[in-house]
Specification:
5-stranded mixed β-sheet, mainly alpha, 22 helices, 509 residues, single chain, 5 strands
Amino acid sequence: MRTGLTVTTPTARRARAALPALALLALLGLWYRLLAPATVNGDGIGYLKQVTSSGLSPGHPLYVPLLRLAAKPWAGRPPLGLAGPLQGLSVVAALLALGLFFDLARRRVGSGRALFATFLLGGTHAFSRAAQELEVYAPATLCCVATLWALARASDDRRPRLFAALAALFAALAALLHLTLVLLAPAVLLTLVRAAPPGRRLARALFVVGIGTLAFLAPLAWLLHRHGVADLPGAAAWLRGADHGIPYPLTLAAPLIAGWGLAKSLLFVPYVYEASLLRVGLLTAAAVAAWGVLLWRASRSPRPEAPPLDRVLSLAWVVPLAAFGTLFYPSDTERWLFLLPVLILWLARAASPVAWGVAVAVTVANLVLGWPAAFDRRDLDRAARVDAAVRTGDLVVSPGHGWDELIGLSRRAPPTRVALIHLVGDARRLAPALVTLRARITDVARSGGAIYVARLDDRSDPRGFKELSWAGLPPDGFARFFAAWRPRPTGIPGLSQLDPTRLPSPHAP
């Protein structure tokens, strides 16, 4: 018999609550895909080269095999032709991460605050940048959020063993994508052991360690075997290459630089070489102010009966990653990306008209500030002009880390390319890298190939030159090294040609 009353089930209520989140994900997905930078950044260039070869990335051993799998439908394209499809992998991973984050936040703080936290996370510069680039960070963030989601479920679900296993598995996958994320192990172990009944904690610890270790070591051993690494010393030496051979020069300013990196993980702030000091200062102040307003609103909000995350889990997650971020390229937003889900979940109770205003302003600002990069093809056009001028047997030398690394990516049979900063990283010292470079130049000259140098004296872009100076070669030293070969302009901006009949000076730097 009908009573005229509508009965709303919990499932129906959850479905209705998810509709705004789905609409939000759709809008963010359009932003990430349509306004992605037109060019490919340095790490993305390296991945494109590895996808079309047999290489692996020591710091991200699972990522290149994942890219090769995703690239199969487009096999046969030159590397640059794979950039768009593979960037789509980042978009999908980012949207899945936001979906899991919304579900986690909904369970901990309610649907309204969860929508605010998801919108804030998705609109941050660090997260949106990860979603828009051909980089490991979006898939790694997905595994981080999945780990956090499983840890929370293991503490309050009827199936703790299932979610404990999932947490260990997701954490292992995160570490295989980004080796830094082995630092999640203390948070995973502490959380799951504390959630177990007192008499079961040792068993839970052994269970978690066993699954996590097996899920990490078995794929890693298989990948290393396929890569030709057959013993532990070889594996250790290969994995040490994760630092690119260029150690970051630590100074007393590292904590201050780390604070700047964390601030601009929320709002895009360019580096000083990319914009005026005034613009960098104003955007930095805006980023700090945005963080300050969010923290202020969170402190003024009524405290919930239960915290959004266990405090021990939060500290065990944040402290190791923050320490690493301070010690290794602290100005990069990637260092702080993996902390954002935890930090923003704690800020979820800041949800208010003022906090929503800040979140909207930050998202719009990041969209507007990132808009020019979506249409800036200057670096691609420079590299394409070089590709049209050189032959397959030629050699193109460059400092690296700039537009010069795009050279050859639009061709299926590229010239030989040598970025000096990569040689320094492989040798871990400048002197043997220069010996190798002289030998490469000599070999190509003997074979009849032309020899070119890109960015011989690039005063507008410090990328590559900055890292070479850390290794002992000042910016003008790069140009001096090639002086004996009498470089001459080619008519292509940024490209010089060497005289292969000249001999290098034994006293060149």
